[in-house]
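User: Okay, second chain of the day. Same drill as before: sequence in, structure tokens out.
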Amino acid sequence: MEKAIEVENLVTHYGDREILKNISFSIPKGSITVILGGSGCGKSTLLKHLIGLLKPTSGRIIIKGNDITKMNEDQMNEIRKKMGILFQGAALLNSMTILDNVALPLHEHTKLKESTIEIMVRMKLDLVGLSGFDSFYPSQLSGGMKKRAGLARALALDPEMLFFDEPSAGLDPVTAAGLDELIIKLNKVFRMTIIVVTHELPSVFKIADYVIMLDKGYVIFSGTLNELKTSDNPRIRMFLERQPEEEKYSPDDYFKVIAGE
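Assistant: Same drill. Structure tokens below.
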């Protein structure tokens, strides 16, 4: 397996609280890898490390033979030019048209002519199904269309790696399924390495080639989707089968605390 990213002994703290607990795994090149887990397990924190927005307490993240945890901001910006990122809320600038939002990375990082940039932007908008919406503003788009516009901007510089943070959040099932299909299409057509952070099981089962599962700051699984489905780990089974955790306290205990007993 050719590796796009290697994470070695990563440890992260927020103050005194340990969030990621000595985790190690690899992300295969050219595949769709899902980072899976419940709320508060460390998924979003891990994503911020992978794109260089956070520095860990210790450990290494290797991309193309380089440890990005040791890079300064200028060095990291060069790496980010090969990354596309779709944030959870799309992060579009409301004062700019969709065309101008998508063109922003091209203006920032290239010296292309305006006419060339406009052609490239229209190609990216067509790719995500937004042809003809270039003069619209974000406030004029639905939630799903905003996600697609954010994706077009993430694709502007033709990245080698594409990151998604909870892409289905806030979307209805039909719109979410359409976005899943688009993720699969991008992977198949461009052989792009795609990393998706989510807890949405329908999306996981549809798009994932490879899965990294976190639980309470630990990696409890790293492998193919089929291996995940057949795992006998009780924490994994609980998550996949949507079983609630056992309550530590009964309602009677709660009322006793209130009554001061």
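The CA atoms of residues 78 and 109 lie 10 Å apart.

User: Thanks, on to the next one.
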